[in-house]
Design a protein that fits this description.
By secondary structure, this protein is of the alpha+beta class. Helix content is about 55%, strand content about 15%.
């Protein structure tokens, strides 16, 4: 379902953070997503570019502060992640 390059890499941590944290009411900006993946901002930005290119995440402007952007899963990213987690739960369960 996902490219193998994601597993064990910051990209996977970012996808999981974007899947879980918004359900708690947390919106992640570019820097917060970097922190969630526990890598340098430079590495995080590179991974965010890969995930964006793959159509899994997108940036949206902050309506209150145009200098800031939030990051969220795309519909494709959410669907793929949910399908994978359901498969994993079924396979491991």
């Amino acid at each position: 379902m996902f490219d193998q390059k994601l597993f064990g890499e910051p990209g996977w941590d970012m996808l999981l953070a974007l899947y879980c944290l918004p359900t708690r009411g947390e919106r992640l900006g570019v820097t917060a997503l970097s922190n969630a993946s526990a890598v340098s901002v430079t590495s995080a930005l590179r991974w965010q570019a890969i995930l964006t290119e793959d159509g899994l995440i997108e940036r949206i402007p902050d309506e209150d502060d145009k200098r800031r952007e939030f990051v969220r899963l795309t519909d494709k990213g959410r669907t793929m992640l949910e399908d994978y987690l359901l498969w994993l739960f079924t396979f491991m369960g």
